[in-house]
Amino acid sequence: MERPIEVSVVIPTYNERPSLGLLHSAWSFALREYTSEIIVVDDNSTDGTREYVRELSRYEAYRLIERPTRQGLASAVLRGLGEARGNVALVMDADGSHPAGAIPLLVDPVLRGSAELALASRCVPGGSAPGLTAGRRLISWGARLLARPLTHVRDPMSGFFCVRRSILSRGELTPVGYKIALEILVKCHPHPIEEIPFRFEPRVAGESKLDRGQIALYVRHLRELYAWRASRPGRASSTL
Question: Which domains does the chain possess?
Fold first, then answer.
């Protein structure tokens, strides 16, 4: 009898073919102790990403979800979470900045029930971000500062996290832009939360998708989250 899937890995992509070629073996090795699937949600890449994932799916536990246009990272992750078959879902980027070696550190607390959400953090002791330029560090610091009243989590900007999927039904998730973890922290109130230190690495290939448009979407997302919180007086912010 086939074992049920324990862990669904959700990876949003747009033109990440070179990095996928470098990383998929590391992901498979990190997931070797679990029954798992890797869900790639692709926003109409033009560099062969989709074709490569289709090829991988012939002999690896990959699934490809194709979207006809670029619709944003957060909505891609949400689509993947909705189609995942595992009780536990891990979200990570496809560019190598989220090291495969940290996958078990995030998955294990959620699988064993000691956390509803485990977040890879650059901001707890042991965490670091050599993959960020000075400008990106400043942007990240400002983004965390703006989100501080919404959550006590130290690194709500992280896009590398593991969550028990059942908690996602606690709130209507309508993310704007690229910060799905912040949306989940505010609306689904995971508890307990574990922040796991990790080293945010330089991407292994390609270019960052962060631009002024993404920053504007983040500001809009914050406005919507603050309005949502204001409409629900008495709700505490997420705590560790």
Answer: 7-230 (3.90.550.10)
pTM: 0.90
58-86: per-residue pLDDT in tens?
A: 888 999 999 988 777 888 999 999 999 99
Please give the span between the terminal C-alpha atoms of the chain, in angstroms, as a whole number: 39
Interacting residues of 145 by C-beta distance below 8 A, sequence separation 6+? none
**Residue 221 and residue 182 in contact, taking contact as beta carbons nearer than 8 Å:** yes
Asked whether the beta carbons of 104 and 175 are under 8 A apart, the reply is: no
- Answer for the pair 106, 120: CB distance below 8 angstroms, yes or no: yes
Instruction: Phi first, then psi: give them for residue 75, nearest 5 degrees.
Output: -70, -30
The CB-based long-range contact list for 210-219 (8 Å cut-off, 24+ gap) reads 210/136, 210/139, 214/177, 214/178, 215/139, 217/72, 217/176, 217/177, 217/178, 218/143, 218/176, 218/177, 218/178, 218/179, 219/146
